[in-house]
Amino acid sequence: MGGFFQSQIRGEDVACRVGGEEFLLILPDTSLDVTRHRAEKLREESKRVSIQYGGRPLGGITLSMGVVVFPVHGTTGDAILRSADAALYQAKAQGRDRVVAKPIPGNRLDRQQWFDSLVVRMLGNQTRPSEDS
Questions:
Q1: Which among 27, 43, 76, 129 is placed 20 to 30 Å from 121, CA to CA?
Q2: 21 catalytic, yes or no?
Q3: Per 3-state DSSP, what percentage of the chain is helix, strand, and coil (rounded to 5)?
Q4: CATH code at 15?
Q5: By the 8 A CB rule, do 100 and 37 touch?
Q6: How many domains does the chain have?
Q7: How far apart are CA 91 and CA 123, in angstroms?
């Protein structure tokens, strides 16, 4: 999946694995709407990825994603990751394989600040072949 993410992002974006099946994408200078759109495109494109485990193809790959914006949803690394996690788990609770973007609260901050940096946190919900098959 790391290779897939690297092939889908811009040079200024950052993609990294943060544990298990979780990945973090940082998309600087991207609006919330564009980031949400890119997350949806990633979700759709991931369905074309073929991954093998133990020499056998895995079932379909799904992505659940939480989209947040810095500094609106958090002003520290820990706070922004907590917000992204909350959006991610909301996506999973709504049935997985979806994108949930946290809404931007009222006009508390200058609009340009909303778009300075965005974080997409995702969890690939991979289906592994059963022991019987």
A1: 129
A2: yes
A3: 30, 30, 40
A4: 3.30.70.270
A5: no
A6: 1
A7: 10
Angle at 27 between CA 24 and CA 32, to 5 degrees: 105
Is 132 within a domain? no
The reply to whether 46 falls in a domain is yes
Return per-residue pLDDT of the chain as tens, 133 residues.
Answer: 778 888 888 899 988 888 778 888 888 888 888 888 999 999 999 888 888 889 888 877 888 999 988 888 888 989 989 999 999 999 999 998 999 998 887 644 444 444 444 556 655 554 444 444 4
Q: Of 50, 45, 47, 43, which is closest to residue 67 (Cα–Cα)?
A: 43
Identify the helix (H) or strand (E) that includes residue 125. Answer: strand 117-126
The boundaries of the domain holding residue 62 are: 2-126
